[in-house]
Specification:
This protein is of the alpha/beta class. Helices cover 34% and strands 13% of the residues. It has 2 domains: 439 residues, Amidase signature (AS) domain (Amidase signature (AS) enzymes, Alpha-Beta Complex); 65 residues, no CATH class. The protein contains 15 helices and 13 strands. The strands form 2 sheets. It has an 11-stranded mixed sheet. Strands 4-5 form a two-stranded antiparallel sheet. The longest helix has 25 residues. It is globular.
Length: 522
């Protein structure tokens, strides 16, 4: 598909900016004709970004729609003559976050194809206030990967399959798949993802970028398609830790419509400014050996050498300890998802005919594209849950928070007298598999931060046969700034890593392909 056809198809599908009889303009129309008044820096940057999107995105399929208002946004930024690190920077937004204008918010589902709310999520309002230009929406694992146990990360009925720019037959992980792939591919430096459990940090790790899952309550969740009131958060996905800090500074803050953010204004700071002078010297870092392995040992060893060379002390933690029984967290997520989704759907425009989770389940059964690759067993389980007053749900929720927080991360930090916990984020990317779904080789301890609502930063630490893997930094509640400082210091000492090669497969890499052939006998 050519870039122009890509633009027309996606804008027609999501933006509603033209009828079926009048196709929307090509991508290049977003930046306007040449020969007008000399464009300002924001508009110039936008033109350059759109050109990269046209050239690169057909290979990775990270973007579901570009915003036709982007040119006007950029011109408005130039007219306002704003100052700031983010002024004029294009940013991509995950397609479960609402933006005012002509783009629908679909969460990847055909059921929400007409969900044109024309309202900005508070975090998008903050991005605009910082002078950023919302370039468009990124693809995601449909419904943020809460639909079925056999799903394919990075696939949605609306957007199709996003691909990993390091090897195009490899999975980009999810659910913030398009945000991760777009940054890794070099289309943009800044994107927003969301996470309930791993949906920022996993795609950041396997795509070789920085991902920051903030403390739950630091960033508003209003006007974001929900999964869990306990665990959901939006967060930065960027090329560098400094860019993640800049982005978090912009989006952090209290929101009266989201009670979880009551402390955010008091807790937030200028995270980017705090990076100046960040150091690893004298820091004690707890290496979670119980959550290591899955093919990352060599890359981890190199990362540990960097940390030690910068003066950090590595403390081995061989066992998680604490309660032996894992919390019943899926029960928590499914209960909260049904309640949260029904409440969200009630706020959508009348054009959205699915008003409840039960309606969405019925819609999927009637739509052949939706269930052609995998089912909706998690949706069906969620529909059977009994609500937030169910004693079993309440016990599971409280047990989970205690397990991962006070008796998990907090206990390890205190017991081993360490400043933060570290370990590999997740394995290298696995192949896209339309037959068996995700074949997940293994992951680290990000689930602890997710369940507890604590911050989790992943920074690229190396590669496994040309595929990126990340190093996790996990700390207590509200330690976002401290983790960014540690990650920044590591990143600066680590040095540059290889860029994506957009290989058809790892097996076709020039250093690997000859090894797969039968050797020539002398």
């Amino acid at each position: 598909m050519t870039s122009t056809r890509f633009a027309a198809a996606m804008l027609l599908l999501l933006a509603g900016c033209a009828s079926a009889q009048t196709p929307p303009p090509p991508l290049s129309a977003l930046v306007g004709p040449h020969g007008l008044a000399v464009p300002g820096p924001a508009e110039v940057r936008l033109r350059e970004t759109v050109a990269r999107a046209e050239a690169i995105d057909p290979r990775v399929n990270a973007i579901v729609a570009l915003d036709p208002t982007a040119r006007d946004q950029a011109r408005n930024v130039d007219l306002r003559a704003l100052n700031g690190r983010l002024v004029g920077q294009p940013i991509l937004i995950k397609d479960n976050i609402e933006t005012a204008g002509p783009l629908s918010t679909t969460a990847g589902s055909m059921a929400l194809i007409d969900n044109l709310t024309n309202r900005d999520a508070p975090i998008v309002t903050r991005l605009r206030e910082a002078g950023m230009v919302t370039l468009g929406k990124t693809n995601l694992s449909e419904w943020a990967n809460i639909r079925d146990n056999s799903s394919i990360s990075g696939w949605s009925a609306v957007g199709g399959q996003t691909r990993n720019p390091f090897a195009l037959d490899r999975n980009p992980c999810g659910s913030s798949s398009g945000s991760g792939a777009a940054v890794a591919a070099g289309i943009v430096d800044y994107a927003i993802g969301t996470e309930t459990n791993g949906s920022i940090t996993c795609p950041a790790s396997v795509n070789g970028i920085v991902g920051m899952k903030p403390s739950v309550g630091l960033v508003s969740r209003t006007h974001i398609v929900p999964i869990s009131v306990t665990q959901d958060t939006a967060g930065p996905m960027t090329r560098t830790v400094r860019q993640a800090a800049e982005l978090l500074t912009a989006i952090a803050g209290s929101d009266p419509a989201d009670p979880a953010t009551a402390e955010a204004d008091r807790r937030k700071t200028d995270y980017a400014a705090a990076l100046d002078g960040a150091s690893l010297k004298g820091k004690r870092l707890g290496l979670m050996r119980f959550a290591s392995g899955f093919g990352t040992d060599a890359a981890l060893a190199q990362a540990l050498a960097v940390l030690r060379a910068q003066g950090a002390e590595i403390v081995d933690i061989k066992e998680l300890g604490g309660a032996k029984e894992r919390p019943k967290q899926l029960e928590v997520l499914l209960t909260e998802f049904k309640v949260g989704l029904n409440a969200y759907l009630a706020t959508t425009p009348p054009s959205v005919t699915t008003r409840t989770l039960a309606d969405v389940i019925a819609f999927n059964k009637a739509n052949t594209r939706e269930l052609a690759l995998f089912g909706q067993d998690l949706f069906e389980q969620a529909e059977k849950t009994k609500g937030l007053d169910d004693p079993e749900y309440r016990k599971a929720r409280d047990d989970g928070i205690s397990y991962a927080g006070v008796n998990g991360i907090d206990r390890l930090l205190k017991q081993y007298k360490v400043d933060a916990l570290i370990g590999p984020t997740v394995s290298a990317a696995w192949p896209i598999d339309a037959v068996h779904g995700d074949q997940y080789p293994g992951g680290g301890a990000g689930y602890l931060a997710a369940i507890a609502g604590y911050p989790h930063l992943t920074v690229p630490m190396g590669q496994v046969k040309g595929l990126p893997v990340g190093l996790s930094f996990i700390g207590p509640k509200w330690s976002d700034g401290m983790l960014l400082g540690l990650g920044h210091a590591f990143e600066q000492a680590r040095g540059p890593l290889p860029a994506p090669r957009f290989l058809p497969s790892v097996e076709q890499a020039p250093e690997i392909a000859p090894l797969l052939e039968k050797p020539v006998r002398p």
